[in-house]
């Protein structure tokens, strides 16, 4: 199975890389040094790229070739009140969550029956004070995938939206650390992979 994990140097992406060790594994991320180290650990190919740049995304997907599984683990958190948030924060959230997914789907090639996994968010967890920009980016991603799913299904490709509770990754570092009871990245990856290969393929997987 040929697998591409984007955002592989994050906590969740790294957990998927380790869980899928042994497959024809391609890893992408922006931190080339950490990416190369992880690739050596799991026997994968490292393909550094900034997926918010469409040209880099296109080059990455051309090099990756036809995929059986795509795990889009790219993400970024940011907190600011609506009166404090500047354009930079809003654009940063949209670029990290929506643009990267849009560029990947635009340029990816898939084998028949492939699955492409993206991470949304439970509204009750993110539609809270200070997270308006983050919540908007996640909501935009979910709406984009809902429309894209119908198009890709004609090609035999299944888009799967995953909603996870809080996962203890570095994403929480700027926010003071993960909340109590957060899943470990390894547990989150295991639960997603357990549900991903059911038949029929779930359009929405809530963990």
From TrEMBL:
It comes from the Bacteria. The keyword Oxidoreductase applies. Pfam families: adh_short. GO terms for cellular component: membrane. NADP(+) binds at residues 7, 9, 11-12, 30-31, 50-51, 74-75, 138, 167, 169, 172. InterPro entries: NAD(P)-bd_dom_sf, Sc_DH/Rdtase_CS, SDR_fam. The keyword Oxidoreductase applies. One of its GO terms (molecular function) is nucleotide binding. Keywords: Nucleotide-binding, Oxidoreductase, Plasmid. Belongs to the short-chain dehydrogenases/reductases (SDR) family. PANTHER family: DEHYDROGENASE/REDUCTASE SDR FAMILY MEMBER 7B (PTHR44196), DEHYDROGENASE_REDUCTASE SDR FAMILY MEMBER 7B (PTHR44196:SF1). This is Short-chain oxidoreductase. It comes from Thermus thermophilus (strain ATCC 27634 / DSM 579 / HB8). The lineage of its organism: Bacteria, Thermotogati, Deinococcota, Deinococci, Thermales.
């Amino acid at each position: 199975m040929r697998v591409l994990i984007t955002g592989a140097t994050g906590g969740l992406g790294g957990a998927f890389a380790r869980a899928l060790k042994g497959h024809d594994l391609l890893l992408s991320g922006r931190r080339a040094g950490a990416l190369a180290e992880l690739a050596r650990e799991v026997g994968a190919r490292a393909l550094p790229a900034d997926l918010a740049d469409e040209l880099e995304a296109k080059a990455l997907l051309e090099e990756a070739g036809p995929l059986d599984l795509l795990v889009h683990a790219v993400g970024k958190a940011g907190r600011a009140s609506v009166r404090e948030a500047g354009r930079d924060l809003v654009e940063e959230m949209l670029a990290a969550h929506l643009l990267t997914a849009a560029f990947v789907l635009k340029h990816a090639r898939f084998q028949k029956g492939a699955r492409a996994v993206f991470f949304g968010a439970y509204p009750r967890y993110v539609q809270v004070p200070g997270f308006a920009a983050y919540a908007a980016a996640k909501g935009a991603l979910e709406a984009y995938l809902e429309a894209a799913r119908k198009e890709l299904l004609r090609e035999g490709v299944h888009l799967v939206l995953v909603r996870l509770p809080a996962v203890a990754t570095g994403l929480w570092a700027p926010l003071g650390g993960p909340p109590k009871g957060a899943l470990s990245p390894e547990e989150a990856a295991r639960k997603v992979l357990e549900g991903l290969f059911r038949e029929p393929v779930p359009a929405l997987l809530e963990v």
